[in-house]
Design a protein that fits this description.
The complex is a heterodimer of chains A (about 550) and B (about 325). Chain A is mainly α and about 550 residues long. In chain A, about 45% of the residues lie in helices and about 5% in strands. Chain A has 24 helices and eight strands. In chain A, helix 4 packs across helix 10 and helix 12 crosses helix 14. The longest helix of chain A has 19 residues. The radius of gyration of chain A is 23 Å and the shape is globular. Chain B is built from 13 helices and no strands. The chains are: A mainly alpha (about 550), B mainly alpha (about 325). At the A-B interface, helix 2, helix 3, helix 4, helix 7 and helix 9 of A face helix 4, helix 7, helix 8, helix 11 and helix 12 of B.
């Protein structure tokens, strides 16, 4: 019988609270039969075991150093409590105070959200991965330490909880066992948002204690603020790379491809996730081909200091309001500087949401330049009749992954489907899809995180539901000679697809590849040489 | 002071406590700062099919150049079934819905019963007897039967639902760790009140005539009017205490749900120059910030905007 993990267990001084037990997990979907065994988790290094707090589930994102003594533990607990207080003051957290208080005080603890969570389901229903587990711990701390009479009546009214270093360190890691996809929130009958609680828990750790994943902060937002991009590309390097992509695209398409830089007064500032430029150069090549063919007045921006013009990522969305605001303001400044009519966000879900929706109310005055999804603009181009397409060039099985940030959290659902229905004769939906989709497992920055053995957790737990969906979408064409395409119009999701395909060897076994949506559009353009999508890349 | 007078005073106090608790919690939440957008689709007021499949105005090319449409009908189409039948719970947690729906719907009917008893009391004060006797008026007879019918159905459903909820809270391992002593107390409170209501109805007041008389005495401030039965007195006392208690607990979701839906999940109001929203945001970015993390360098003097626009100088 499966061992239950109770909420109070979080503060107990056990070496490790729980682990993912493969025997509890759902079987892999067909055709990965019962004989298939997932790779063993990479063992943690002795150094990691010595230095870092590994007391939750056998993996780690944060690499929290072990406190040296009790005084240090107590100080960290004090800092946590101080952060908890600030999280519920209007001065420090006006950005999300109202939704947080409502979610803290109105949960009926009905567990409806648990069954909607892919991580909970695919972990074999391990209690710590319930959307309510970490939220309930925070809730009990909130009622105990912040509400009048909490120390006397908190246990009776809301349940018991102890606050110690075990609680704090496990909460910190637990904040990074959630994709922030908010599928749980969309099923809550009361409208409580346990995803938001996780989001704000991350903020507490970052904004008060300076605890955040290196991938998101130091190598992410900070690097972007310093050189212009989290990829480390400065303006010279990015221009050089784009020049190379233009040349390559010209060869591939047979159409002279040129990317305009820093064009003042252009209609469109195209803001890519710069990861595309390094990892999926065909994505930018396709954008350039399509926009030029459609006669769009567009430009890229090489701003990298006062403004950020060539990398749309905004990892602050996942862990820190101030980092979010800093980057969003600089994105808007890049557009303001060029005087463009609108910013068009390339295929990157979190960048869509960060700049279009979340930052909307703080981008005031001249900085409130209209933001639009590239998907919307591309659908407009495809349906305008300006460009001739040959859908038979895309006559292979295609399924669509819905990036949570773009779909459930922004309501951009139909334009991508209109494109695929028109250009991909063998398009089929995943089940479920649209606003009911499942996260790829890379959401909230996980696609960037593979330290220690976190990749094993990510692939075998967080991304497993997506694996299930992918295999089901193609279940009638599993022969590896039939090339199949997962359309994932989001850089983080594409990174996740790449990892799933590699980890489970889906290309070699079943002929499953992946890419964005603009590549499918250009692949079907009559004026382009056939074969823009190069299956050999896998 | 006689027990009758005391019961009247407790009833008034409970009604005032209920209203105060609702108003105070409403004002507390409503006066919180304007938050950042955090909507979740489907947004019910989106027009046409968008409300169904979860689309938004952001699907439109140059969306900011077009008037933003909003459909009150679509919103009602979502809200009314959700309020009455708990559709989200039906879709996502059928096991709990089988207990929660009768509980909630039963309470709605009991609220309606109180409304009819109150209406009946007013009718009788106006000289229109509420009865099924020979000289009954149509309205008097209608109120008489409606009160009884919805009262009996309401008590039955609410009792069945509350017992079912208590049972599942105590026996389902997925729920028990998340069920506090207070949550058990709340359900037991409901069950006790509903059981006494049933017994009172069967043994003492099958036509609600005595309850109507008590309401009349409340309306006319006739504190001396006797409550004819001790059991009825206990039932009234427990009921009004329960009513006062509800908005002080997480059960306040009966009205705070309005915020979670309208002010968060469906709040897609965008920035507009010169708007009230802009004024609020301008005020809020001036708040002094005290977060302690080194990368923010908040000292309690710098405000939110200062920090949001400062360069990073981490190594």
């Amino acid at each position: 019988m499966k061992k239950r993990v109770k909420i109070n267990d979080v503060s107990k001084p056990t070496a490790q609270l729980t682990c993912v037990d493969p025997s509890d997990q759902p079987p892999f979907p067909a055709p990965m039969d019962e004989s298939y065994t997932a790779p063993e988790w990479k063992p943690l290094s002795e150094k990691a075991k010595d230095q870092y707090e590994i007391n939750l589930d056998g993996t780690l994102v944060l690499s929290l150093p072990k406190p040296k003594n009790k005084e240090e533990e107590d100080e960290l607990v004090r800092q946590f409590l101080s952060g908890l207080e600030k999280l519920f003051t209007k001065e420090n957290n006006w950005t999300f105070l109202q939704p947080m208080v409502l979610s803290m005080e109105n949960c009926a603890r009905c567990q409806t959200c648990s069954d909607s969570c892919h991580i909970y389901e695919m972990s074999g229903k391990n209690d710590i991965y319930r959307p309510t587990y970490r939220a309930e711990i925070l809730r009990r701390l909130y009622f105990k330490y912040l509400k009048p009479g909490g120390k006397f009546f908190g246990k009776w009214r809301h349940g018991d909880i102890d606050l110690n270093w075990q609680t704090v360190s496990r909460l910190a890691e637990l904040a990074y066992r959630c994709n922030l996809c908010r599928r749980c929130a969309s099923t809550c009958p009361i409208g409580v948002d346990n995803g938001l609680i996780t989001h704000d828990l991350r903020k507490l750790f970052s904004q008060e204690m300076g605890i955040h994943p290196t991938e998101l902060h130091d190598n992410g937002a900070v690097l972007q603020m310093k050189v212009g991009s989290s990829t480390g590309m400065n303006p010279l390097v990015v221009k050089d790379n784009i020049e190379f992509i233009d040349e390559d695209t010209t060869d591939k398409t047979g159409i002279k491809t040129e990317t305009p830089w820093d064009v003042e007064g252009a209609d469109v500032l195209l803001l890519h996730n710069a990861g595309e430029i390094l990892s999926w150069p065909e994505n930018h090549g396709a954008f350039a081909t399509l926009f030029n063919a459609a006669g769009i007045s567009w430009t890229l921006s090489s701003e990298s200091q006062e403004a950020l013009g060539y990398d749309n990522i905004n990892y602050g969305l996942f862990y820190d309001d101030f980092m979010l605001a800093k980057v969003a303001i600089k994105h808007a400044k890049a557009a303001a500087k060029l005087g463009v009519k609108k910013i068009v966000l390339g295929e990157c879900g979190h960048a869509h949401k960060a700049l279009t929706v979340i930052a909307d109310r703080v981008l005031t005055g001249d900085l409130n330049i209209p933001r639009e999804s590239a998907i919307t603009l591309m659908e407009n181009i495809v349906s305008s009749g300006k460009i001739e397409f040959d859908p038979s060039r895309n006559d292979f099985p295609v399924t669509l992954h819905d990036p949570c940030n773009m779909v459930r959290l922004m309501g951009i659902v139909e334009p991508q489907r209109k494109i695929l229905r028109k250009l991909c004769p063998q398009f089929r939906e995943m089940t479920p899809h649209g606003v009911n989709n499942y996260c790829c497992g890379g959401g909230s920055g996980f696609a960037l995180m593979s330290g220690h053995n976190f990749e094993d957790w990510r692939m075998q737990v967080a991304s497993r539901k997506k694996l299930d969906q992918i295999l089901n979408a193609f279940k009638d064409e599993m022969d590896s000679s039939i090339h199949k395409y997962i359309c994932a119009p989001c850089s983080n999701c594409k990174g996740s697809m790449r990892d799933i395909i590699h980890y489970y060897d889906l290309w070699n076994k079943y002929g499953i590849g992946y890419g964005g949506i603009v590549e499918l559009i250009v692949n079907a353009m009559v004026d382009v040489k056939p074969g823009y999508i190069e299956w050999e890349m896998y | 002071m006689s027990s009758t007078v005391l019961l009247h005073l407790v009833t008034y106090a409970a009604i005032i406590a209920f209203l105060l608790a609702v108003v105070i919690r409403f004002i507390r939440i409503n006066s919180m700062p304007m938050h950042l957008r955090w909507e979740l689709y489907p947004v019910a007021h989106e027009p046409g099919a968008k409300a169904r499949y979860g689309g938004s105005h952001l699907e439109e090319i140059d969306w900011w150049t077009k008037p933003k449409e909003s459909s009150r009908i679509n919103e009602m189409r979502y809200m009314i079934p959700e309020m009455l039948f708990l559709v989200a719970l039906f879709e996502h947690n059928r096991k709990l819905w089988l207990r929660s729906f009768p509980f909630h719907f039963g309470l709605y009917l009991l609220s309606g019963t109180i409304g009819f008893i109150f209406f009946g009391a007013i009718l009788e004060l106006a000289g229109i007897p509420v009865t099924n006797g020979e000289n009954a008026s149509i309205i008097g007879m209608g109120v008489f039967y409606l009160t009884q019918i919805i009262g009996v159905i309401g008590m039955t459903l609410a009792a069945f639902g509350s017992i079912g909820l208590l049972h599942i809270r105590l026996t389902d391992p997925d729920l028990s760790d998340y069920t506090s002593a207070n949550a058990i107390f709340n359900l037991v409170f409901f069950i006790v009140v509903l059981m006494i209501a049933w017994i009172t109805f069967i043994l003492i007041d099958p036509t609600y005539q005595l309850t109507r008389a008590y309401i009349q005495s409340l309306v006319t401030f006739n504190f001396a009017a006797p409550v004819e039965s001790a059991l009825l007195g206990i039932e009234i006392l427990l009921s009004v205490l329960l009513i006062a208690y509800i908005p002080m607990t997480h059960m306040s979701h009966f009205f705070l749900k309005w915020f979670t839906y309208h002010k968060i999940r469906w709040d897609d109001e965008g920035y507009t120059p010169g708007s009230k929203l802009e004024k609020k945001i301008f005020q809020q970015v001036q708040y002094p910030v005290t977060w302690s993390a080194p990368h923010l360098k908040a000292d309690g003097k710098k405000n939110w905007l200062d920090i949001a626009t400062e360069e990073i100088d981490e190594k």
